[in-house]
Every structure is written in C-alpha cells, then in structure tokens.
Amino acid sequence: MERLQKVIAHAGIASRRKAEELISQGRVKVNGTTVTELGIKVSLKDQIEVDNVPINQEEPVYFIFYKPRGVISAVSDDKGRKVVTDYFMGIPERIYPVGRLDYDTSGLLLVTNDGAFAQKLTHPKHEVDKVYVAKVKGIPEKQQLRPLSRGLFFEGVKYAPARYDILSADTKAQSAIIQLTIHEGRNHQVKKMLQAVGLPVQKLKREKYGNLTLGNLRPGEYRPLHKKEVSQLLNLAKN
C-alpha cells in the first residue's frame, strides 16, 4: 500500500506536492469515489483517476542513458527533433528524463517513470555531484579559474562553488579540456560558469552523476539501473 499522492507522482502526473493539491481540490477519484484526504493509501488493485482520466500504476523502472548530441531531453518535441524516449521504443512504461542535458550536450542522463525519484534528484536542496568535461576556447590560467571554486554571479544568477581540473591544453588550437564538478542543475550552468571566466564552451559531455558513470555505453545506448545503484543515488540526495 502506498499513499495516494506518492502513486500519482510515481505515475509522472505531477510532483508529490502538486499531487497533494490535486487531491485537496477534489480532482482525484479512487474506485469512482472522489477523495480529498491526503493520508489515504491505495494498492495496485485500486483504480485511480485524475480529472476523470485513469492513471496506470506501473512498477518503477530506472535507466542510465548515454544521450548523444542533437537530442532533446524530453518525451516529445513540437519541431519534430529527436527526443530521449525515441531510444526506448521497446519499453512499455511511460518514462521521461530526470532533469535535462542541452540539445548539443552529450553524456549521462537518468530516465525513469518514478516521479518521486526524479523530484528528489532534481530538487535544489539535494546536492548530488555531476561531473562534466568541457572543451573550451582558450588556454586557462589557474587564477582565471579560481572564481569557479568560490562561486560566482553571472547575468544576475548566483552559482554555487564548483570543483575544477584542467585535463589538457592545446596551445596550437588554443583550446583546453576542463573537468567541472557541480551539484546544482541550473539551465546551461556549466556553459555559463565557464563563459563567466572567459572560456566559451565548444563541446560538453556529462560523464558522471553521483556514483554512476557511463561505463561501456555508447551514444544512444542505455541499461537498467541495479537496485543498489538506485538506493545509492537516493542516499546521496538524502545526505
């Protein structure tokens, strides 16, 4: 038995908090009866409707996906561009990406049908490390990168401190490879932080999320997460 709001969130209808609002507003039915009590528990046998539309209570599934460049981190796109779920055609569950990677950014992306899991990992207060590798224009000086480790303001936004490492530099091409570890998930964050210190990003890849790496996956490939990996991610978010 699970709390009703958790089941609604798990189905990807809304966040846990929004699900509670839907219940309080009388927009949820269980077995044909409108419920407004937040503490009610339901089982897989119960028929749940939100705004008179039945929801499917699916078993939770979790995947690690190597997102290629030129793919939208979404389940649909009004411009007809390729989206993440195009790579999961054989998966019957209604899955969606956890957070997002930019269209031109490749790398590790989590995909699930568990709304509570997705919400916990993407909530700003849960500091789960994410490691990116960026090819930048210019040869960085150590002093130039120090603001990254202190946190910085850029275009009116405050970014939390990040850890960085210069992996290589090409003086002939006037470019460098920088590894950046952040725990926030702001829009275009890595690109903007590096732009703020005068290093425009030419190419970007997310290589690690919490304790997870891409391993042997190639662009466009995915694998299911093991139960232990899911538990470790949730523990990282909790701590």
UniProtKB/TrEMBL annotation:
Which InterPro entries does its entry note?
A: PsdUridine_s_RsuA/RluB/E/F_cat, PsdUridine_synth_cat_dom_sf, PsdUridine_synth_RsuA/RluA, PsdUridine_synth_RsuA/RluB/E/F, PsdUridine_synth_RsuA/RluB_CS, RsuA_PseudoU_synthase, S4_RNA-bd, S4_RNA-bd_sf
Its name, as the record gives it, is: Pseudouridine synthase
For this protein, what is any one GO molecular function term?
RNA binding
Task: Please indicate which superkingdom the organism of origin belongs to.
Answer: Bacteria
Query: What does the UniProt keyword field contain?
Result: Isomerase, RNA-binding
Family stated for the protein in its record: Belongs to the pseudouridine synthase RsuA family.
Q: Name one GO cellular component term.
A: cytosol
Protein EC: 5.4.99.-
A Pfam family this chain is assigned to: S4
Annotated RNA-binding S4 domain ranges read: 2-59
PROSITE patterns in UniProt = PSI_RSU, S4
Q: Name a single GO biological process.
A: enzyme-directed rRNA pseudouridine synthesis
